[in-house]
Amino acid sequence: MNSKLSGRRKFLRDSAALVGLAAGVVPVADAQMSHTEATAAPAKETPKDNKECKDNKDLIAYGERSRYVKSVRIPVMERMSPDEFGMTFHVLSPLQDSVGMITASSLHYVATHRGSYIPDIDPAEHRLMIHGMVDRPLVFTVDELKRLPFVTRAHFLECSGNRARASHKNVQQSHGMTSCSEWTGVPLSLLLKEAGVQEGAAYVVAEGAETVKGATSLPLAKVMDDCLVCYGQNGEPVRPQHGFPLRLIVPGYEGIHNVKYLRRIKVVEKHYMTYNDYGHLADDSRVAALNRQVGPKSVITFPSGDQKLPGPGFYEITGLAWSGSGAVKSVDISLDGGQNWTPAELRSPAYPMAHTRFGFNWKWDGKECVIMSRCTDELGTVQPSRAEIAKYWDKPNTADLQIRGLDNSIFPWRVAADGSIHNGLA
Amino acid sequence: MGSRKLLLLLMIVGLSQICRAQSPTYGVGRTPSPEEIQKWDISIGPDGKELPPGHGTAVEGSAVFLRKGCFTCHGEKGSNGPAPTLIKSDGKTKSPYPCLTPCVNDLNVMSLHAPYATTIWDYINRAMPLTKEGTLKPNEVYSLVAFLLYNNGVIKEDEVMDQQSLPKVKMPNRDHVGLAPEWKHGTPRLAGYP
Question: Any residues with CB less than 8 A from the CB of A108 and at least 6 apart, and which?
């Protein structure tokens, strides 16, 4: 035991020494230090200057992040939360601080139907009913659903309100209504086969258990393809703000279809024009299609608005890419406002309908420039520029161009000569 | 006799095959009673086949609008309140409130914008009034729908809304709604879009 301890102490001392050497200062090793503290210690401080967390509570029961990490969600600019009725509307994820491809559940963006309170649902009391055009209507408890074969998949969600405006200062405001989680649940197709879908069925109505019983019509073809009834998110039960105890995941479709607090699936013969559908009515079937499924999209999260580069030199440009039609195939970067494009590297797995992290080696020369990212998905569809979208609708490409359907346009950041980053649409 | 027995045997075997083909794989979950389904099923489709018995007129709806306090959020005349516009305004008075995102104003009042009157019935029944959602009686919902449709110029003042009449209301926007084309796996969201 003693020899083991001394061996560990020797390792700790050596690693601390390495850190010190790297920084060019003489290390003072302390046998009580942990490895992490040693490597993370600022080079000029002696390790004794590191404070220790005296309270072990969250070390044991439920872990909290460091008190030095301040990244939080913020209400969407266009409607405050809580609103005048005390309800939460839409809350944005801090993409500027994001790393990897998964969003922490506590930072995942939140959107509610018309503004709502989060229901306090006892999972033991919650039920999911499947009925309508089926041979055998069924009711499941959450525990019964957990007995069935499940899948775990990474999928992004994105709200239709996720459209960059010239007034947005940072990527949280311009793109913060998208996030990506690892979801675990039962394929809805499995439940529907268990109930026996009848001939003539073409849609389902999915409904939540919150006060307004938010409901949405979904094509049966999509539901049978890849929709999931999820109870797990990022290794734990789906959080209340994201639909505890059950939520529907409709991969690649606009956020509102991913019904939270899922309590009912009704199989029907036609589009039901119900609660959520009304809010997404379009006068043109092209707009309806563009409203339904997310196109290939990407955004640079570093460097991005409100951030500042300390000076010329090497930086890794990084960001997120996603598509509602499948996996991300490639991402290109432009450093000259969209004239020339160079491939970025995909730095995470590229799963279908999931955020994919990209990186790009960049040596900034200290001159003003406009940087952009462009996503191509597995179907070969390329993220469009605002000019291409304007041309499609035969509209002038002005700063106030209203993009119809979900906005997946290429977004520019302007890097000023002083290293400050600004919205390129402004 | 023998052949009849054989036929019977074949029929039994055949039936059991059919039953096996249709039987559930996992047998998890229970069968809800028809009453249970009816109680839960608040989805009213365009045909209105799920509408419950009941009836109401615009005059009755006007009283419900006051009694249930709808006017406190939506404005005395169904406009210029903090909540979405319900009745197209005369356009002369400017609302003291900003239009709540997603903005519903004179341009997209539900009674003029929804392609089916059933959508209005479904919406009010499931989601109104604020904090007392789902407590309105069928007659109250029919009355409110009649009140909104009359005041937006869609139906006449004395028209009774019920299970039969409500789905037949020809909404002004019925023929101006585009639904997304059929969805297929592995296709772009809209062919020809950049």
Answer: A93, A157, A179, A181, A239, A241, A242
For residue A70, give both structure tokens: 């301040």
A132 and A215 both lie in a single domain:
yes
Separation in Å, CA of B156 to nearest CA in chain A: 24
- Tens-digit pLDDT profile for residues A19-41: 333 333 333 333 333 333 344 55
Rounded Cα–Cα distance for residues A92 and A104 (Å): 13
Q: Which CATH number is A351's domain given?
A: 2.60.40.650
Q: What does the block give as tokens for A68?
A: 């030095």
- Asked if ipTM goes beyond 0.90, one says no
Q: Does the domain at residues B69-173 carry the CATH identifier 1.10.760.10?
A: yes
Q: Does residue B2 carry a pLDDT above 90?
A: no
Rounded to 5°, the CA angle A59-A64-A66 comes to: 105
Q: Are residues A271 and A331 in the same domain?
A: no
**DSSP assignment letter at A47:** G
Which residues on chain B are in Cβ contact (under 8 Å) with A297? none
Chain B: give the shortest CA distance to residue A282, in Å: 6
* A257 domain-assigned: yes
| Model pLDDT for residues A230-286, shown as the tens digit of each residue | 999 999 999 999 999 999 999 999 999 999 999 999 999 999 998 888 878 888 999
Phi, psi angles (nearest 5°) of residue B141: -70, -45
Contact residues on chain B for A273, CB-CB shorter than 8 A: 45-46, 114-116, 118-119
**A8 lies in which domain range?**
2-60
More reliable by pLDDT, A50 or A83: A83
